[in-house]
Design a protein that fits this description.
This protein has about 210 residues and is mainly alpha-helical. The chain is built from nine helices and three strands; from the N terminus they run αααβαααββααα. A hairpin with a 4-residue loop joins β2 and β3. α1 packs parallel to α7 and α3 packs antiparallel against α7.
Length: about 210
């Protein structure tokens, strides 16, 4: 099933991380991300599961992954940009509901996602209402897979536990996605230098 099975595997590990005692014990403490509490970051991680059942089937046309990130208002913006402030505020507001609410909601949502993935045709196109455009279902899952991998690491670091392991195929998908975005933002030469020539490496090749 490719990205579909990878998404479910990483979502399972993210839910296990969210259910761990370290997250509950540090819920109100600052996370490793600027202006995010552990609870806010936990809800932001869970959103990568909540968002999947919120898509609706569409007739397209679907845009590419590259175009998706080219259009995204938050790409390349720092933590003080209004888009990123809004993302944090929504997650922080959700975090006031507490860890037990998060766990019950994310377990229910993951059940919905499993059913959706089991029934989704290979050529399914979905409308992303928050963005305003369409993606293939597998491309949308790729975007959520990347977010799950990145924010699972953020949350694990924040609460002092090991980062959940990622299946090799999932890791390859995420690295390919991030490197492609980095090349678009910084150029091929900058990325090659950062990976091969420390003495000429630019200060950053961050995808976002």
């Amino acid at each position: 099933m490719g990205v579909r099975s990878d998404y479910l595997a990483v979502a399972d590990s993210a839910v296990a991380l969210l259910k761990g005692p370290a997250v509950a014990s540090k819920w109100a403490e600052p996370s490793a991300l600027e202006d995010f509490s552990v609870g806010g970051l936990a809800f932001h991680l869970a959103n990568q599961i909540f968002h999947v059942p919120q898509t609706t089937p569409s007739f397209g046309p679907a845009i590419s992954l590259a175009e998706n990130y080219a259009r995204a208002a938050w790409v390349g913006k720092d933590a003080s940009h209004e888009v990123n402030i809004g993302i944090r505020q929504r997650s922080e507001n959700d975090a006031t509901e507490g860890v037990s609410t998060l766990i019950s909601q994310v377990e229910a949502a993951l059940g919905e996602v499993r059913a959706l993935i089991a029934e989704a045709p290979e050529d399914l196109v979905v409308h992303i209402e928050r963005a305003g455009w369409d993606l293939t279902f597998d491309d949308f899952l790729t975007t959520r897979l990347m977010e799950l991998v990145v924010h699972s690491d953020d949350l694990a670091v924040s609460v002092g536990v090991p980062t959940p392991p990622v299946p090799e195929s999932a890791a390859r998908t995420v690295v390919d996605l991030l490197s492609g975005i980095a090349v678009r933002r910084h150029g091929t030469t900058a990325v090659i230098r950062a990976l091969s020539r420390a003495e000429r490496a630019p200060s950053t090749i961050a995808a976002f």
